[in-house]
Amino acid sequence: MDNTSKLNDLGLGGAQQSEGPLPSTSAEDYMNDPILEEQWAMKAFQHAETYFNLLCSIESKKLRLTRHDDEIYSRFRAVFPDLKVDILDENQIKSVEGKELWRSFCEEFKELIEDYNYGTLIRTDSKGEYSSDNSFLVVRIQFYAIEIARNREGANDTIRDSFGSKKL
């Protein structure tokens, strides 16, 4: 039985609970499991839905996303002092230079933030809701850094007024 079949036989729960490293084989030997991808997408959407509902219900400046918001925000602004957070430029964030800066930033929080590198949806325009045209994928610590900045700097202030009665 090949390694891909072994992982598929485990299913999501078994793969998450399996102990020990994966057999040392090439990454090309592992195929994307559509079921796992669908479950990941559902989890990412549930996270986005929960966060948007919070923005609709609570004054964003009072919203704390983690116990480490102050540290995340101060480090974010030290590394990215001029990054515009109201409307994100996905190309800037995902450029070669952007990826390098973000990779270093993200790794600083590896031990501090649980699931720091999980895929998470973020809104491109802070004034809009989640949609296929207004969302893209980032890792969790990027989401926290940008959304904490949006909350503290007022970029999310209009969400409650605009969408308060229209929760996802």
TrEMBL record:
GO terms for cellular component: cytoplasm. It comes from the Eukaryota. InterPro entries: PBDC1-like_dom_sf (IPR023139), PBDC1_metazoa/fungi (IPR008476), Polysacc_synth_dom (IPR021148). This is Polysaccharide biosynthesis domain-containing protein. Residues 36-160 form the Polysaccharide biosynthesis domain. Residues 1-29 are annotated as: Disordered. Pfam families: PBDC1. Residues 15-27 have a biased composition (Polar residues).
